[in-house]
């Protein structure tokens, strides 16, 4: 009975690895074409992987928590269907093709498949039922052969091993198909003798503080307990990588108390039910449309424009901060945009958002007003050139020129800008434009 591999899918353009979260079917359990078999996750979202045929889950290669490169098998499904491709590649009648021949040297045989992890040619897989016992190797002979070959390892594992001066052949592989993963290299580092801090870089899994001592007491990073579950830790690591990059960007923040008094009246009528977050996000998108440089990115030799406006909305989820992207929100009507934001936030918090919404941002909106925060400084997310921080919307007393007091609805906002892309005066003008948009409720009705 043919065995069909179930592969780790590529769920976004930037995805290189996926992590197995939960198997929904046990070994020996029946599956149908389209059935969800396993839940896998990236740094951002969880997704179901579906069976591509009817059959039985014969073997699981990757267990919960295992990180697997895109395109690698994570399980095998046995199916009674003899030929999943039908006669798609069958030769036309009269071409002299013979069945069962193994002597041909056709074009298909001339191109040996390449292993996606080790970049080395591998033998084309055969159905398990067609491989004779004599064609296999004993475990002992297979181990001797593997010891003389280049170890299978993902690129990050090779990089970490090279930086730490570790021979990959000495690392015990724990991944599927005896693939060495980054976590295997880190485990080898932790189990080895105390390393020389001048040899192992901080990002090899041991922080620069791990070798420091205070009063003879080690401050190793392994002395404390890691907080949170595996998924929340992955999100913290992803956030840390962004912050590492943003620390290298010269950036500044300008502040302005946005006057929302006229809009406060409109929210009781034509904008009834629309959140302040939606109103301010759309005003931000309209402002970016007027300032292509602020919607652009620094490329090293100048500012390059983006062909679209993508507003990443920072959302607090049970697993940490995520920022899904709304593409061209300025083109949506205000009420349609409000509904789209609510649907997107619900999907992200439930971990069910499409991975495609996690990329393509050209600017970010972060709103902590619901927590009672009046002002904070939002950091840039490379390669985005701006980030808008929004505090609480509140009513404040103001004095008119004649000394009379009136109420004014305001929101303290901060616009953080990549200084390579624009200057302080550019940011001030952009804020002035945003205020003009907010002063005209009809511009926001769309």
UniProtKB/TrEMBL annotation:
Q: Which CDD domains match?
A: lipoyl_domain
Q: Which domain of life is it from?
A: Bacteria
Q: Which organism is it from?
A: Micropruina glycogenica
Checking Pfam families in the record gives: 2-oxoacid_dh, Biotin_lipoyl, E3_binding
Ranges of biased composition (kind: Low complexity)? 125-135
List the GO cellular component terms.
Answer: pyruvate dehydrogenase complex
List keywords of the entry alphabetically: Acyltransferase, Lipoyl, Pyruvate, Transferase
The biological processes this protein is annotated with in GO are: pyruvate decarboxylation to acetyl-CoA
GO MF annotation: an example: acyltransferase activity
The cofactors it requires, by name, are: (R)-lipoate
Protein name (record): Dihydrolipoamide acetyltransferase component of pyruvate dehydrogenase complex
Its family? Belongs to the 2-oxoacid dehydrogenase family.
Q: Where's the Peripheral subunit-binding (PSBD) domain? A: 152-189
User: Segment Disordered: which positions?
Assistant: 90-148
The UniProt record lists the Lipoyl-binding domain at 3-78
